[in-house]
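@channel anyone free to eyeball this complex?
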Amino acid sequence: MNRPVPITGLGCISAAGPGLEAGLASMFRGCRDPRPPQRFCTGHPVPYPVFELPEFLGPPSLLRTGALLLHAAREALADAGLDRDFLDTLRAGACIGTTVGSAMNDEGFCRALRAGGPPSLEPMERILRSNPAALLARQWGLDGPCQTVVNACSSGTDAVGLGASWIEAGLCDLVLAGGADELSRITCNGFISMRIAGPGPCRPFDRERDGLNLGEGAAVLVLEAPELRRRRRARARAFVLGYGSACDAYHPTAPSPDGAGLGRAISEAMAAGGIAPGQVAFVNAHGTATPDNDRVESGVLAAMLPGVPFLSTKGYTGHTLGAAGAIEAAFTVACLERGRVPACAGFQEADPGLPAPVAENSAVRGAVALSQSLAFGGNNAVLALGLGERP
Amino acid sequence: MTIAIQGIGVVGGFGCGTADLARAMALGAAPAAALRADPGPLERFVPRRSLRRLDRFARMAALAAHLALEDAGALGDDHDRLGLVVASGWGATGTTLALVDSIIEGGDVCTSPSHFAGSLHNAPASHLAILLGARGPSLSISQFGLSAPSALMAARLWLEQGRAQRVLVGAVDELSGLTGHLWDRQGELERPWGPGPRGEGAAFFLLSSRAEAREPYCLLEQAITGRGPGPEGLAPAGTSPLYGAMPAAPAFDLAAAAIRLRQGQGPERVSCLTRDQDQFGLVQIRSFRR
Amino acid sequence: MDLKEKLKTILIAELNLEDLRPEQIEDAAPLFGAGLGLDSLDAVELVMLLQKHFGITLKDKEEGRPAFASVNALAAFIEARQQA
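replying in thread with the prediction:
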């Protein structure tokens, strides 16, 4: 069993809200407003809705993904009561998940290159300046380990789990762990071409579900060594109790029908935390609203955690790719603190033969919850999170 | 826990496999403008039909990974609990260009889903897991010049913490129309990449605990990243004329250092330092013979 | 080149079936599962290829299902759409 790793600060920006509390409040009010993207157009007969942050503007020198990350990091550090001066006295690391934020991919640049060029180098310079973990380290003077995780849809969950393992291993005293991703035209086109984007607001676990909506955002969790937390007398909002990770090794884009990889990852996370199924208050599921994911995922939950309430928050945020696991970990902590989970937005009627998610805002009982992600490429990542101290 | 490098697989401008690299190290190599890698030998390990989805980038990674397993005598083993870590600085830029081409040529409705899937950073790790039947933890990393040290750091931790008994870890970078163009204009970049020659390729390592390793190359004492210039008294390796400059080069530096250690050449402990912008990566190896 | 011949050439080139020649693909052989052994990712690529090479828009994967049974089925589907 692992020693629990304290989480002393949280920051989160998504379509649900510009901060964690605003996001939770909005979810409990049942607000969601996916629309066709405003910042760019795609030439499809159907306008695929997305969860965009139209008012968010980052500096032109950085990728939007980097700006979203810095926003969430500021909230998390303030929540943890940490400033730059104090960080300078610590060995502090950064472990961040992303997809768009680390891709040498700018459509304008590539088009100009193909048209004969030479294109302006600024889009590439922006990418080179904005590697998420390196950017955080530079911005906050973090001199510990630094890692940018690009595990597709499980990156955020993996980053938090990996960051916690650095604390356990004594590699550093503190880790800013999380994920960030912006909406991008190419990514939207990519998911639409794969026929897994839904033409309307997404319906996780619903019998009529027909695909995901993309979203953008970022979340950062402050993970601290227990000794540091004691010295600072900082409040632990929650603890990372366990992290599990396993690969389906089945198909580049489709999940394994038997969900074996997810099962392994859940077992690993729970064993690491010494958690029995009866202790799990709820599961924040991946729940993208694609026919395949939701079928496989709910099947595994039914087998391993029967009767445990589960929900997807992607009905409020869209699928934020590299940020998703981190945003959902933050939501999971906030829900544990409240003893309540919001309804699984978009769900109306259960798929016959599969368990149903939480259909209304509900009380939950227990001090432990799971947050999980299933990625393109077959990665499955699960975090076991435990309630911290009351303020 | 003491961690050992059991096997090494490399493909680059010098050729394919540790024997080619060792030969090139002995002879030195005439600098060429660009050191290209040939992933063709991958068909020695995997039937061509099973490779149809792998682009050149993924094939280089898969080749080096299979070579590392072969080098360690572990090709035929059960890889169910094998951990995988694949790092790249530039990613699959060849397929990224092909993806944008599909949009330019036919409009958004002609976006190629295969090219999109292949352009994702974790595509090589995904293909490798399927080819090997590796169902342990899988991690893809991308942070330019620090990608390889960061990947090795992750692999070491997995072994120390018991997440995997063996880990296949490596780095891959590809010269493409996009990276080639940036090389051509590197004088205009804020932080130039050179000096050249420009290179591409993949270098992979099979890691296990010292106890489990048979005839390891060496012991992997440390792999870490941090801020600043790194420990005093160390200098980063320059561009090698054998494999060229690329973000993944530190993985090749490690392979060359491990080969030298096994040959009994040079000091018993070797530190490989990488600098990237305001950060450093450090990989330390030591002879396993005391 | 007749339509079926063209389809086989497209399948080989675009789905990267490098080890096959057009004459090795039987007109009536299944494309998915058995036969050619294509999968779900090939299916969505094929949907895109129908758009790219023949200007045919499929509403969803289901609409394409009968068309994807074999080269014969694909050719018949395309001809029917182009006459409509």
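from a first look: Chain A has a mean pLDDT of 96.
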